[in-house]
């Protein structure tokens, strides 16, 4: 039986996950327009949140349309997490504890899924946060290998005061290329054991997946992360045109600004299938170097101009044209939002084994790199050169403050985009040529022609002295 507070927020069924650098206000509002009924903020660090007003202002933004909303915190100190909860108590509907992050940064900070073995501490955190605020405390967790232990874990959190549980049906070790399939069996067993509202997370790539999960596990709602990023209309059951979603998102960003890195990340996810085609490398590079809203919009316009006639049926699209990184037929045309399909852990393991065998067959020789003069550099020497490049250099003030006025290489005969940090305002190819011809270095492109030649001269001089 759902609790009263869960009824008051409308028994949300389709939930946007807390995603670092991805579930910011503009993205949440976009998803709400397309059938999401509850959103989480990105994970916030409780310790920094309580001490740094600037961090609070920059990382927690909302508006009246952004409800119901759950704010997520990470941390391992009950008092600090309770204090952080008080800061946002009046601006959200519940506060979530991140007990699911499997990344190495969570291991170093001892939060997320790396707290799941300290049940006594978790009980204390949930209990103290529940006493500190008047709104519900919820938890997002990962499972253990054992179904029985996963169920006991959920019951412990419920007893401590957790009023809603989100279960990601993967273990702490299932991440990156080893993500694999989430276990709905674990989720179902936990659902049958606890009495508080519960969301399921994992294996959701379309609305049909969400419905199958609801039917099998009998949870109250479905949470989506990766599926939502590639298709913000996933809960609407449609595959919208990529540039339409992108333009709608950018309009919201104009009203509710966020860092350009967030925008770039979202557009790469939305256009991920389009960028698997070699003929779209120019648009991909423009997106990688975009610095403002106009730059991002121009990328969307270029993609729209290229694919609109195909979408309208006036031109016939060939799935195999220009494919470089995929070798299978597309179920949906690439200009539509669609899931990102990972390779299986088994395929990844086989790939790693093939690479390992290939390296072992090279007679134990270490990999060598080539410099600008096409001469081999040992790994030891390359490491030394990189160390030299990291040494701080005081640039000319005027050069340092100069802003890029064009996104195209300053070589008039070159159409390529320039490197964002190139000191000569050139693309990498033109920069290499300039450095080679004029005996220069480029810190931005990490081209070390001058440095390497000077080192070679010193080395040769030292050799001559030794001979003498």
UniProtKB/TrEMBL annotation:
Enzyme class: oxidoreductase
Alphabetical list of Pfam families matching this protein: Dus
Name of protein: tRNA-dihydrouridine(16/17) synthase [NAD(P)(+)]
EC number of the protein: 1.3.1.88
Lineage of source species: Eukaryota, Metazoa, Ecdysozoa, Arthropoda, Hexapoda
Annotated ranges, domain DUS-like FMN-binding: 16-267
Cofactor: FMN
Gene3D superfamilies reported for this sequence: Aldolase class I (3.20.20.70)
Similarity field: Belongs to the Dus family. Dus1 subfamily.
Chain segments carrying region Disordered: 349-376
Source organism of this protein record: Vanessa tameamea (Kamehameha butterfly)
Sorted UniProt keywords: Flavoprotein, FMN, NAD, NADP, Oxidoreductase, tRNA processing
PROSITE patterns xref list: UPF0034
Catalysed reactions, as listed in the record: 5,6-dihydrouridine(17) in tRNA + NADP(+) = uridine(17) in tRNA + NADPH + H(+); 5,6-dihydrouridine(17) in tRNA + NAD(+) = uridine(17) in tRNA + NADH + H(+); 5,6-dihydrouridine(16) in tRNA + NAD(+) = uridine(16) in tRNA + NADH + H(+); 5,6-dihydrouridine(16) in tRNA + NADP(+) = uridine(16) in tRNA + NADPH + H(+)
Signal peptide: none
Molecular-function annotations in GO: flavin adenine dinucleotide binding; tRNA dihydrouridine synthase activity
Tree of life domain: Eukaryota
Annotated InterPro entries: Aldolase_TIM, DUS-like_FMN-bd, tRNA_hU_synthase_CS
């Amino acid at each position: 039986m759902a609790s009263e507070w869960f009824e008051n927020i409308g028994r949300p069924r389709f939930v946007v996950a807390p995603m670092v650098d991805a579930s910011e206000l503009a993205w949440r509002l976009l998803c709400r327009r397309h059938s999401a009924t509850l959103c989480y903020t990105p994970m916030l660090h409780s310790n920094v949140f309580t001490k740094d007003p600037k961090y609070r202002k920059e990382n927690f933004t909302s508006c009246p349309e952004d409800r119901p909303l759950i704010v997520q915190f990470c941390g391992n100190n009950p008092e600090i997490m309770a204090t952080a909860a008080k800061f946002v108590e009046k601006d959200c509907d519940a506060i979530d504890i991140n007990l699911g992050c499997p990344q190495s940064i969570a291991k170093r900070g001892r939060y997320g899924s790396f707290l799941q073995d300290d049940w006594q501490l978790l009980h204390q955190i949930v209990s103290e946060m529940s006493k500190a605020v008047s709104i519900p405390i919820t938890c997002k967790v990962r499972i253990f290998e054992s179904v029985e232990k996963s169920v006991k874990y959920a019951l412990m959190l419920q007893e401590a005061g957790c009023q809603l549980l989100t279960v990601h049906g993967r273990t702490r070790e299932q991440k990156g290329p080893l993500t694999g399939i989430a276990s709905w069996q674990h989720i179902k067993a936990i659902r049958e054991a606890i009495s508080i509202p519960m969301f399921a997370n994992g294996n959701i790539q379309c609305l049909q997946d969400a419905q199958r999960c609801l039917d099998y596990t009998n949870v109250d709602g479905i949470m989506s992360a990766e599926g939502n990023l590639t298709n913000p209309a996933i809960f609407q059951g449609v595959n919208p045109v990529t540039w339409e979603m992108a333009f709608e998102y950018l309009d919201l960003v104009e009203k509710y600004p966020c860092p350009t890195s967030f925008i770039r990340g979202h557009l790469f996810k939305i256009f991920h299938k389009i960028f698997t085609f070699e003929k779209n490398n120019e648009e991909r590079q423009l997106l990688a170097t975009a610095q403002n809203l106009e730059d991002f919009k121009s990328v969307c316009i270029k993609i729209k101009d290229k694919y609109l006639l195909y979408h309208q049926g006036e031109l016939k699209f060939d799935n195999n044209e220009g494919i470089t990184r995929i070798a299978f037929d597309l179920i949906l045309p690439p200009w539509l939002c669609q899931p990102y399909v990972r390779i299986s852990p088994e395929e990844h393991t086989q790939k790693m084994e093939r690479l390992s065998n290939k390296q072992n067959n090279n007679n134990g020789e270490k990999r060598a790199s080539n410099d600008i003069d096409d001469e081999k550099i040992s790994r030891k020497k390359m490491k030394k050169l990189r160390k030299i490049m990291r040494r701080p250099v005081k640039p000319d003030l005027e050069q340092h403050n100069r802003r890029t006025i064009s996104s195209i290489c300053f070589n008039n005969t070159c159409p390529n985009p320039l490197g964002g940090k190139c000191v000569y305002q050139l693309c990498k190819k033109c920069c290499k040529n300039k450095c080679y011809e004029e005996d220069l270095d480029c810190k931005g492109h990490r081209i070390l022609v001058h440095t390497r030649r000077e080192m070679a001269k010193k080395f040769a001089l030292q050799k001559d002295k030794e001979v003498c």
